[in-house]
Amino acid sequence: MDVDDLAWQASNYRGLSPRTVRLLLEQGHLNLVAQVAVDRGEWFCAEGAVQKLCRAGDFGRAPSVMEPFVVTGWRPALYAKADILLRARRSEEALNLVRADDSGRASTTECRDLAELLGISVRSSQ
Questions:
Q1: CATH number attached to the domain at 3-125
Q2: In 3-state terms, what secondary structure has residue 41?
Q3: How far apart are CA 81 and CA 71, in angstroms?
Q4: Integer Cα distance of 121 and 118 in angstroms
Q5: Residue 94: is it exposed, middle or buried by C-beta count within 10 angstroms (0-12/13-18/19+)?
Q6: How many helices (H) and strands (E) would you count in the chain?
Q7: pLDDT at res. 92
Q8: Cβ neighbours of 82 (radius 10 Å)
Q9: b (16+ CB within 10 A) / e for 49-68
């Protein structure tokens, strides 16, 4: 799995579709969906499993499901893990994960995503 593969997967529904993942989760197959995410690099499985784990308050397992995607450096995965960390009230770790590099240059999208993440952080701390 690499960044290009993940981008293509997210835009072309390669592998399991979001609908199939949702149905599996509704039928109680969280462990299977999480395992497929990690073993096969299925983005929609990771996304769905992490949402379900976070709703259940399982902030210990959720980052491990997202980690194979994070190590590629793919921005959506980084922000997904940062969201998990924020929900777990680990704000500093979340912000360190998505902070712009030392050059201080970030794209408009990265700035918007960081602003959204900061907004979530502020709302969750109130």
A1: 1.25.40
A2: coil
A3: 11
A4: 5
A5: buried
A6: 8, 0
A7: 86
A8: 26
A9: bbbbbbeeebbebbbebbeb
Alpha-carbon span 25 to 47, nearest angstrom: 11
Answer yes or no: are the C-beta atoms of 101 and 81 closer than 8 Å: no
Residue spans of the domains in the chain: they are 3-125
**pLDDT, averaged in runs of 10, over the chain (126 residues):** 68 79 94 93 94 94 95 90 90 82 63 67 55
DSSP state of 15: S
Take residue 26 and report the two structure tokens written for it.
């509704």
In this prediction, residue 47 carries a pLDDT of 94
Q: How far apart are CA 48 and CA 72, in angstroms?
A: 19
Q: How far apart are CA 100 and CA 53, in angstroms?
A: 28
